[in-house]
Design brief:
disordered C terminus, Uridine Diphospho-n-acetylenolpyruvylglucosamine Reductase, domain 3, Vanillyl-alcohol Oxidase, Chain A, domain 3, eight-stranded antiparallel sheet, alpha+beta, binds flavin-adenine dinucleotide, Uridine Diphospho-n-acetylenolpyruvylglucosamine Reductase, domain 2, 19 strands, 451 residues
Length: 451
């Protein structure tokens, strides 16, 4: 393999496994402190879409598998699990058309940067819940973002994608041109068969009065909290995001019931919060309602998931009652080996209907996610075992998982990330667009196989 041929054709850089810096550079690609056992032989730091095409042609010519890498945030470190990683970290262009309320964003643009740029112009988008996550894999997997009950999962605000396909061609796919590629690029996640080099988005008018109220409860109040949440959320507008965050505490799990309202005016926010407060069980502590613009939302959520810690994460969609899911999550958190771990239970009974126009096809009225977070390698088995037991406890009540937060390392995954129809369609498209299996990875077909 003559890697110098590739190096000479790139505007960006190539790092091979023969270089002393390779191991450190490879590990740095993955956000999780727990690094994958396998390292890619070649790391291509793409400087532009043409670099991506050159890398793909080289990989195809040399029989290498390829993984695109946006920010390396997928918790299983899947972005490094191929012979060649194409690192898109330098593709960070962001262009707004304020009048038309549209944007062209390159993969490395983060939630935090996007939020700041949009806010400046009175615009918004269903951005993810943590500032450091880039658009790259976030949009490709579906995008479970802020105010997604009202604005929809983020991938449904993608109007076109610029993609380098397995044959090295660069195409723009939308609802009329390369429509199958466009369908797949909204939800396929790591099982997509190309490299997205830019997304075209529709934006929302900013909400001027985003406000949050937090009520803190002991674990014993879980069912009362769930009953109250179901009652008020049945009447709440879609602009309310209701999440219970469960963390371990010295006297058992602690629940923080968080209602974030994306209102246009303070008066509207006040009215909605007042309605949400009706029947709330007596809390240990009540914080807010208080203003929570996007910057504040990130300041509040980012510290829960610090970089450098070891993570194992899985998620589940359910049509079950909120209390059933929350009750099982609380039981799981009571057994958490690490005090840093946490869980989220999101009640989405007020969400708008999700269109059936994209690969993204698993969702539900309740979203649950477990985050095992710990410090030492010697505790890996205990924490991953706890995570899997926790998901197994939820599985009988669940219809699927979210690929962006799925435990793709798990060989015996029960919860699929796509519907059976979408998985079958994606498998056909993969064979058509990537017949040599350039983007084949070892998690395939476990993550999305049709049932
Ligand atoms: C702290 C934290 C908070 C999070 N919060 C949220 C949240 O609120 N909502 C939510 O929906 N998700 C959330 N996630 C999950 C996150 O959206 C996914 O893990 C997503 O994959 C991250 O994007 P990435 O580009 O870093 O992915 P990477 O890990 O870089 O890539 C994962 C895989 O996706 C594919 N891929 C990535 N980019 C491209 C591309 N441009 N073209 C083709 N394939 C590509 C590749 O197959 C790659 O192997 C969070 C993750 C973390 C770590």
């Amino acid at each position: 393999m003559h890697t110098e041929i590739l190096q000479n054709r790139l505007r960006g850089a190539l790092i091979t496994s023969l270089e002393p810096r390779h191991a450190a550079e490879s590990d740095a690609l993955i956000w999780n402190g727990r690094k994958p056992a396998r390292r890619a032989r070649l790391i291509v730091r793409a400087a532009c879409a043409e670099d991506v095409a050159e890398a793909i042609r080289f990989a195809a010519g040399n029989g290498l598998t390829v993984s695109p890498r946006g920010g390396g945030h997928q918790f299983t470190g899947i972005a490094a699990q191929a012979d060649m990683v194409i690192d898109l970290g330098a593709l960070d262009g962001l262009t707004l058309d304020v009048g038309r309320r549209t944007a062209r964003v390159e993969p490395a643009v983060t939630n935090l940067r996007m939020a700041a740029a949009l806010e400046r112009h009175g615009l918004a988008f269903p951005l993810g819940h943590c500032g450091s996550v880039p658009m790259s894999g976030y949009l490709l997997g579906g995008g479970v973002g802020w105010n997604s009950a009202e604005w929809g999962f983020a991938c449904f605000s993608v109007t076109a994608v610029e993609v380098v396909l397995a044959d090295g061609s660069l195409v723009t796919a939308n609802a009329t041109d390369h429509a199958e590629v466009y369908w797949a690029a909204r939800g396929a996640g790591p099982d997509f068969f190309g490299v997205v080099t830019a997304y075209h988005l529709t934006l929302q008018p900013a909400r001027r009065a985003i406000t949050t109220a937090i009520r803190v409860y002991p674990a014993s109040a879980a069912l009362a909290v769930a009953h109250w949440a179901e009652t008020v959320m049945a009447k709440a507008p879609a602009s309310v995001e209701f999440t219970t965050k469960v963390t371990p505490g010295p006297d058992g799990p602690v629940l923080a019931a968080i209602a974030t309202v994306f209102a246009g005016t303070e008066a509207e926010a006040g009215t909605i919060h007042a309605a949400l407060a009706v029947g709330a069980p007596e809390a240990l502590q009540v914080i807010g309602p208080m203003p929570a613009p996007f910057a504040a939302l990130y300041e509040a959520s980012d510290p829960s998931m610090p970089k450098g810690r070891r993570y194992a994460v899985d998620s589940a969609w359910s049509e079950a009652g909120y209390g059933e899911i929350l009750g099982r999550i609380v039981k799981t958190m009571a057994q958490a080996p690490s005090g840093d771990s946490m869980a989220l239970a999101v009640l989405r009974s007020n969400a708008v209907t999700t269109p059936e126009t994209a690969a993204f096809s698993r969702h539900g009225r309740v979203f649950g996610a477990l985050y095992a977070i710990w410090a030492d390698e010697e505790d890996d088995a205990e924490n991953t075992g706890w995570l899997r037991a926790g998901i197994d406890r939820l599985t009988p009540l669940c219809t699927g998982a979210y690929v962006g937060e799925a435990d793709l390392d798990r060989p015996d995954r029960a919860l699929r990330t796509l519907s059976a129809e979408a998985a079958e369609r994606l498998a056909i498209l993969r064979r058509r667009y990537d017949p040599a299996g350039l983007f084949h990875r070892r998690s395939w077909p476990a993550a999305v196989a049709a049932e």
